[in-house]
Amino acid sequence: MLGTAQATLWCPAQNQPPLPRPQDEALARQALATRTVMRWPPPEEPASNPAAQSAAAQEPAPAVMAAPLWRANGEPLAALVVSRPHPPFSELDAQLLGGIAAIGTTTLERLEGVEALRRRAEEFQKLSDLSHLTATLTDPAQVARRILAECRSFLGAEVAAFLDIDGQPVVTDGHASPGLLAALGAPQVLAPDGQMTAPVQQDGLVVGQVGLLWRPARPLPHAARPLLDRAAELIGQALERRAHLAALEATQEGALLTLGLALELRDFETAGHTRRVVRQALALGAALGLGPEELEGLRQGAYLHDIGKLAVPDRILLKPGPLDPDEWRVMQEHAAVGDGLTRSIATLHPLARAVIRHHHERWDGRGYPDGLAGAAIPLVARVFSVVDTYDALTSHRVYKAAWPPEAAILELQAQAGHQFDPVIVAVFIQLLRAQPDPLAGLQETPAD
């Protein structure tokens, strides 16, 4: 339309190759500054001017024209620069290029708007993805590792890191040299050297920060701030969740121990029985290869194994002599009663109830309350039965003296395959033999 050999859209705010000639860039800047179409050679130089004709004959220069593109908000967008070998551009050419530039401005702003909407959609999607990614994770380090990897990849950063309050790295993603990690420095909103950080808070207190580093420094993505803030928030939530769970576990542990000690006092058992059987049961369970869930059920059940004795009358529970058949029948009911009592404790581990109900079952099927035999008896109950019997034998009671450890070990061996699981007995005896004194640190003074 204009007979041009070359057309360039030049944006001064972006890093792009310079125009072919310095005077072309100067013309583009002049067009943006004056908001008018600029031509070279200028229209005021008449072609009939002998000096101009002589210069053109000696060194013909291409005709150049630049039209400004301005945003609707008054900010410069770009300059449309066109050139041709000859002839010079006319006023009509300038008007035509100005119209093309106006259409181009509208089109570019629409394209930028569409691109901005696309970026915002991606940001919202990534914010949603971060929440979903961490929904099944409980460990704060795992949460931080997953989130930082996603943020670094999406934002094109070189390094992402979670630092503690002293600036020491807890989790890093990317090639994080000590120098780059040290560059994160104190929390700040936006640093000029391609760095961004956000504080991590736990229960309202700053406990660290997350940071992103770009090298070499560059304009930071618009999505960096909302994504980094969300990452810091999710890591803080994971830290709070872990602290709250630890507090709940400590509260539960104290409640279980208190109840166990109360049962000790009512049964006149040797002081420390509850702590000993819990400790020994967990050691034996670990030696047998029980997993975390089984050990937790065993631990809770060990605390509450005799809770059913709350329903046994004192005249039976505290009787110094042998029980008659009717009394023994009432005593045997404590295992099933304990199971029933603990059904209403929603937070109690299911395997704990297996310990409470079945720790008086026998390997040969002659135990109570259900007469289970062999492997039909829950493993946690078989483990606890051995530990509980050994502690009862080696402890002083109002109706008997404490047995020597070796005598108690011989009794366990004699009952292996009858009362107890023989494999569990063998492993427990190995644990006892490995101790210089089988009762060291376990047996305490009898209760008054």
SSE topology:
Elements: E1 6-10, H1 22-34, E2 38-40, H2 50-58, E3 63-70, E4 76-84, H3 91-133, H4 140-155, E5 159-164, E6 169-174, H5 178-183, E7 195-202, E8 205-213, H6 224-267, H7 273-287, H8 292-304, H9 314-317, H10 325-332, H11 334-342, H12 350-358, H13 379-393, H14 405-415, H15 422-433
Antiparallel strand pairs: 1-4, 2-3, 3-4, 5-6, 5-8, 7-8
Helix pairs in contact: 3-6, 4-6, 7-8, 7-13, 8-12, 8-13, 11-12, 12-13, 13-14, 14-15
Domain HD-GYP: 248-444
Protein name: HD-GYP domain-containing protein
Pfam families: HD_5
Describe this structure in words.
There is one protein chain. By secondary structure, the chain is an alpha+beta fold. It has three domains: 6-117, Beta-Lactamase (2-Layer Sandwich), CATH 3.30.450; 135-238, 2-Layer Sandwich (Beta-Lactamase), CATH 3.30.450.40; 268-433, Orthogonal Bundle (Hypothetical protein af1432), CATH 1.10.3210. The protein is 51% helix and 12% strand. The chain contains 15 helices and eight strands. The strands form two sheets. It has a four-stranded antiparallel β-sheet, sandwiched between helices. Helix 7 (273-287) runs antiparallel to helix 8, helix 7 crosses helix 13 (379-393) and helix 8 crosses helix 13. It is rod-shaped and about 130 Å long. The model is unreliable at 186-192 and 438-448 (pLDDT under 50).
Spell out the key features of this protein.
4-stranded antiparallel β-sheet; EC 3.1.4.-; Beta-Lactamase; disordered C terminus; alpha+beta; 3 domains; 448 residues; HD_GYP_dom; Cyclic_di-GMP/3'3'-cGAMP_PDE; hydrolase activity; single chain; Hypothetical protein af1432; HD-GYP domain-containing protein
